[in-house]
Write a structure and sequence with these properties.
- The chain has a domain at 125-364 and 426-459: Alpha-Beta Barrel (TIM Barrel), CATH 3.20.20.70.
- The protein contains 19 helices and eleven strands.
- The strands form two sheets. Strands 1-9-8-6-5-4-3-2 form an eight-stranded parallel beta sheet. Strands 7-11-10 form a three-stranded antiparallel beta sheet.
- It has helices at residues 18-21, 27-37, 39-42, 46-61, 79-82, 125-130, 147-156, 169-183, 198-201, 208-217, 231-244, 260-270, 293-303, 321-330, 351-358, 370-375, 392-398, 403-415, 439-462; strands at 136-138, 161-162, 190-197, 220-226, 252-257, 274-278, 284-287, 312-315, 334-337, 365-368, 384-389.
- The chain has 464 residues and is of the alpha/beta class.
- α12 (260-270) links the parallel β5 (252-257) and β6.
- GO terms for molecular function: nitronate monooxygenase activity.
Length: 464
């Protein structure tokens, strides 16, 4: 990669052949990369003006070409796409990409990593940060995202989070062992993450603090923090642990937000490595007043400084690769999917819950605090509720029925195995999922779909 002093002028002396410039280690390839690297300044030079439009056309056409070297370019008409074509040293380790375009970090990948398919890398700030190929992250879903599911998403080319089991530290260790076994990483950094609910960590004498400690001792690559009243405390806890243990890399911290104000506070005060914007469509718990995801992502991107803000992940109601591609072009670095991965063999969800999801119809989900009342899982911060499949007990409560009677009826139905007496958290779009499929296959399908959509959208400018 040529440095900042390159003025782009040499590119005028070369024919801009698409095939040759996107072939690594050729002179024309290096010339165009240098020109793209310096576009903001090069646009002002006479030499570069003559090639500027051609560079942008080629930039758009080869947005997701495998193994190509293009750099993040600011202040140009394709800025929303610039985040999708990043190929630079890893921001954690400073190591250069290998021949596959993957930047190694201290979390070693097994020999069979990605071996099931020869996928190109979709270059975003999140795929660089995590050293993965697909900008898809598995949500840490309590009772669903265990070691098997998290590891299979990672093996597929995305990044998996597990949610700690709240039935003892040994059960949690079991899930981490499952992940290690699947990833074939016996004693090194673990390329998955673990999600924690801040309010559970903050409970007096909370056993969840021990689970956080276990996760850090296992050198998980990332910790996800959500729904806390004192998030700064846990960010400091994680950073202090890294410092005291003398790690040569930091544990990445993901912070979930549901409003623009929360996003601004998180970036300014907590300084996360990744920001997760969760829209109203999301399954499970989140901010009741959160706007729709598209609106939220747009607002957050507009409110945060583009040059220094952390990578932004979009979360909420995302089911397919077309949606992921849409958020990439909007400016997000990737997407979080939860509900889609509930219908996998690897999820901890029971078969009855999976069948209920498969039977979901349009408008089958709703947001309500009654899910927690029925489940007796109260204690969430003010303003937080959950989205799940519609059940009669919740609708009756909303219609004004006696809450105690509704709870009693629900409890009796649950004892009898009544499918209508089970709380199943799921996001908007659940009705679009019609089959159970291995998690790794889902990631591959998402990857191909993302590339197809990005290539299709790039043609809108390729004829300019």
């Amino acid at each position: 990669m040529m440095g900042d002093e390159y003025d782009g002028g040499d590119a005028a002396e070369h024919e801009l052949d698409a095939e040759e410039i996107t072939s690594p280690n050729t002179d024309k390839h290096r010339v165009v990369c240098g020109a793209l690297e310096s576009l903001p300044r090069a646009r002002q030079t006479p030499q570069a003006q003559s090639i500027y439009s051609r560079l942008l056309r080629l930039f758009a056409v080869h947005l997701v070409t495998p193994g190509r070297v293009l750099s993040n370019v600011t202040e140009h008409p394709l800025k929303p796409w610039s985040a999708c074509v990043l190929h630079r040293p890893n921001v954690v380790t400073g190591k250069a990409p290998d021949s596959r375009g993957i930047t190694a970090n201290t979390h070693s990948r097994p020999a069979h990593y990605f071996s099931s398919t020869d996928m190109s890398t979709i270059y975003t700030s999140i795929t660089r940060l995590l050293s993965v190929r697909t900008p898809v992250v598995l949500a840490p879903m309590a009772g669903a995202s265990g070691g098997a599911l998290a590891s299979q998403v990672t093996l597929g080319g995305g990044f998996g989070f597990l949610a700690p089991t709240y039935d003892g530290s040994e059960k949690f260790r079991d899930q981490l062992r499952i992940a290690r076994s699947n990833l074939n990483i016996p004693a090194q950094g673990l390329p998955i993450g673990v999600g924690f609910l801040g309010w559970k960590l903050e409970t007096p004498d909370s056993p969840h603090v021990e689970l956080l400690k276990i996760a850090l001792e296992n050198q998980v690559q990332a910790i996800w923090l959500a729904c806390g009243n004192d998030t700064a405390r846990w960010v400091e806890y994680i950073r202090k642990h890294d410092k005291e243990t003398g790690k040569d890399r930091k544990t990445l911290i993901f912070i979930q937000v549901g409003t623009v104000d929360q996003a601004i506070t998180a970036v300014n005060e907590f300084k996360p490595d990744v920001l997760v914007a969760q829209g109203n469509e999301s399954g499970g718990h989140g901010i009741a007043a959160a706007p729709p995801l598209f609106t939220l992502v747009s607002q957050v991107l507009a409110a945060l400084p583009s040059g220094t803000a952390p990578p932004l992940l979009a979360a909420g109601g995302i089911i397919n690769g077309s949606q992921v591609a849409a958020y990439l072009t909007l400016g997000a670095s990737g997407a979080v999917l939860g509900t889609r991965f509930l219908l996998t063999p690897e999820t901890l969800y029971s078969e009855s819950r999976k069948q209920a999801l498969l039977a979901a119809k349009t408008n089958s989900t709703m947001r309500s605090g009654m899910f927690d009342v029925l489940n007796n899982t109260l204690g969430w911060p003010s303003g937080v509720d959950g989205r799940g499949l519609r059940i009669s007990a919740v609708e009756e409560a909303h219609a004004g029925a006696n809450i105690d009677e509704v709870k009693q009826k629900f409890a009796e139905g649950a004892k009898q195995g009544d499918p209508g007496s089970i709380v199943i958290y799921a996001g908007i779009g659940a009705e679009s999922i019609n089959e159970i499929k291995p998690a790794k296959d889902i990631v591959h399908e998402l990857h191909d779909d993302i590339i197809e959509r990005l290539k299709a959208s790039s043609t809108l400018l390729s004829q300019a």
